[in-house]
Specification:
The protein is mainly α. α3 packs antiparallel against α4. The chain is rod-shaped.
Length: 173
Amino acid sequence: MAETKTTPKTRKTPAKKAVASKKAAPKKTAAKKTAPKKAPAKATTAKTRAKRPAAASKAAAKDLRSVAVETSRNALRAGLGVYGMAYDQVLEQLEMLQSQVDDAQGKLNERRKQAENLYKSLIKRGSAVEKDALKALADLELDSLADRSKLEAQMKKAKSRFDDLKGKFGKVA
């Protein structure tokens, strides 16, 4: 394990920090000039280490291992959390896009129905106009077209019928 240092006023620290405190400690000792107190402190740490049972060091090693395992698991869980959040965001966006597609499809179906209804009404109106036009054409006497005066009378009659049809068509539309 790491080397530790104990002073009467300080607590035990790992070796890395002890090096820093060793550098700081000579400055303090030079100022205080209490070199005899350091020797008994080292003796107590040596005694403490000698008294510490091996089971305690194994328990400390197990604690460090469990802390390391838990830390690594937490890091893995954090990564999974990032993946989960990204997945949730993608699902939300897909749901939003699907709702937009559904709305557009509904509007398209509605417009198709409107177009179909309009087409049916146009067919109905076209058949009515066709009947009227055939009726007007039947009223024309094609045999008497040889005579000029009869032809002009027929033309006036046809024009008036077409004007009537035009008036009917204008009223309906």
